[in-house]
Write a structure and sequence with these properties.
Number of helices: 17
CATH class: Mainly Alpha
CATH architecture: Orthogonal Bundle
CATH superfamily: Cytochrome P450
Pfam family, one: p450
CATH topology: Cytochrome p450
Number of domains: 1
Strand content: 5-15%
Radius of gyration: 24 Å
Keywords: Endoplasmic reticulum, Fatty acid metabolism, Heme, Iron, Lipid metabolism, Membrane, Metal-binding, Microsome, Mitochondrion, Mitochondrion inner membrane, Monooxygenase, NADP, Oxidoreductase, Signal
Distance between the termini: 81 Å
Mean pLDDT: 88
Oligomer: single chain
Largest sheet: 5 strands, mixed
Low-confidence stretches: 4-27
Strand order of the largest sheet: 1-2-7-4-3
Number of strands: 11
GO cellular component, one term: mitochondrial inner membrane
Protein name: Cytochrome P450 2E1
Structural class: alpha+beta
Pathway: Lipid metabolism; fatty acid metabolism
């Protein structure tokens, strides 16, 4: 009986603590649905489609509101005006990275994507500078992508026009571009090490978008106490890091400080220059996590966009025909596409932008955090509060993009058929935390898609009208459904 009393008292205290934490300062935060003790608003949210749940809540509470994931409040920004005001107008104040317990356990504040403060600023600045300078006056990123596009075409030819699942091949191409930048060399598509890296990256991307991982990030206690796919995620992460450490040791042995060959060499040179700095940013641990971030920013997102893009082109053969007509007029059949062609190909440019807008790859972006107490629209948001930005609400804004649920390249064309820029195009997010791989992704999407459409006719194995383009996962990322197609050589 005494044990029952103790359990009841402990549970009561826990509930009271939860209620106190959720109510303290609540008058300062934006309004939102009433949270349950401990659980917060998790039962009112669809973990398979968080973005849709937030859209429904915005109709009740407006463009700025608060939801609780467990006992932690998240301020949600919905609609272009709120997102722009925070990420662009108040970019510095909203430049923090919100806490994701699953990522914190693996990275411990290192790298670019999930770091904060000095480590984030220094590492991001160094990485952007190094990527811009690539390859140290020898080979530009465009050269690397063009080379990989040619290899991609050869791999697609090997399918002999038979039905195939494009997932693996479309993943290999952007992954190899990153490998050539980081490790100096690309891999053959049949290389066993390359296949293992590809498998782990793809698997982790799928796990990270699963409903279970949304629950783990909401209730971190589950990470250490329960079995689940998160353990596979951690194992894959550790294996890739182990390979990066191995390659780093090889680079340390062969390093020529006067002739850096790749990203690792550049980082090791800076590490030597900064070794007496008290605030150590350039460490082997930070290098490994930075490389992992470059793989994430430059591989899985691009390959998913390519895969989704081909599905939409299969669904809309009239769009594909127009793009191929523009390729014939501007590039022809015998010369490789280059980035200079893009300014002469407004329709193709519009199609690529519309693919990114329509698929809404990262619906709520990654969580931001405010770097200090800030007054925002008459609310006081305390330092460290997580901020969730609904990119869906911007990319699918009905006023900017009429009929936003319809795939229509006209969303990015003016009445004369010229390409039309839009401030609402936030496929890479916006502000200080805009995607590090944005520049590389834009080059890859244009060169890979135009090269494929220059060399192949896309043939669906079912009637295009019967193709389903609804994403199968809409947690962290929108993933296209499985499909097969034929690449018919021209």
């Amino acid at each position: 009986m005494d044990l029952v009393v103790v359990l009841v008292l402990c549970l009561s205290c826990l509930l009271l603590l939860s209620l106190w934490k959720q109510s303290s300062g609540k008058g300062k935060l934006p309004p939102g649905p009433t949270p349950l003790p401990i659980l917060g608003n998790i039962l009112q949210l669809d973990v398979k489609n968080i973005s849709k749940s937030l859209s429904n809540l915005s109709k009740v509470y407006g463009p700025v509101f608060t939801v609780y994931f467990g006992m932690k409040p998240l301020v949600v920004l919905h609609g272009y005006e709120a997102v722009k005001e925070a990420l662009i107008d108040l970019g510095e104040e909203f430049s923090g990275r919100g806490l994701l317990p699953v990522s914190e356990k693996t990275r411990k504040g290192h790298g670019i994507i999930f770091s904060n403060g000095k480590i984030w600023k220094e590492t991001r600045r160094f990485s952007l500078m190094t990527l811009r300078n690539f390859g140290m006056g020898k080979r530009s990123i465009e050269d690397r992508v063009q080379e990989e596009a040619r290899c991609l075409v050869e791999e697609l030819r090997k399918t002999n026009g038979l039905p195939c699942d494009p997932t693996f091949i479309l993943g290999c191409a952007p992954c190899n571009v990153i490998c050539s930048i980081i490790f100096q060399n690309r891999f053959e598509y049949k290389d066993q090490v390359f296949l293992a890296i590809m498998k782990m990256l793809t698997e982790n991307a799928r796990i990270l978008s699963s409903p279970w991982m949304q629950v783990c990030n909401t209730f971190p206690v589950l990470i250490d106490c329960f079995p689940g796919s998160h353990n596979k995620f951690f194992k894959n992460f550790a294996n890739i890091k182990s390979y990066i450490f191995e390659k780093t040791r090889e680079h340390q042995t062969s390093l020529d400080i006067n002739n850096p060959q790749d990203f690792i060499d550049c980082f090791l040179i800076r590490m030597e220059q900064e070794k007496h700095n008290q605030e150590l940013v350039y460490t082997v641990e930070n290098l490994a996590n930075t490389i992992l971030d470059l793989f994430i920013a430059g591989t899985e997102t691009t390959s998913t966009t390519l895969r989704y893009g081909l599905l939409l082109l299969l669904k809309h053969p009239e769009v594909t025909a127009k793009v191929q007509g523009e390729i014939d007029r501007v590039i022809g059949r015998h010369r490789s596409p280059c980035m200079q062609d893009r300014s002469h190909m407004p329709y193709t440019d519009a199609v690529i932008h519309e693919i990114q807008r329509y698929i809404d790859l990262i619906p709520t972006s990654l969580p931001h955090a405010v770097t200090h107490d800030i007054k925002f629209r008459n609310y006081l948001i305390p330092k460290g509060t997580n901020i969730l930005t609904s990119l869906t609400s911007v990319l699918h804004d009905g006023k900017e993009f009429p009929n936003p649920e319809v795939f229509d390249p006209g969303h990015f064309l003016d009445e004369c058929g010229n390409f039309r820029k839009s401030d609402y195009f936030m496929a890479f997010s916006a502000g200080k935390r805009i995607c590090l791989g944005k520049g590389l992704a834009r080059v890859e999407l244009f060169l890979f898609l135009t090269t494929i459409l220059q060399k192949f006719t896309l043939k669906s194995v079912v009637d295009p009208k019967d193709l389903d383009v609804t994403p199968v996962v809409n947690g962290l990322a929108s993933v296209p459904p499985f499909y097969r197609l034929c690449f018919i050589p021209m």
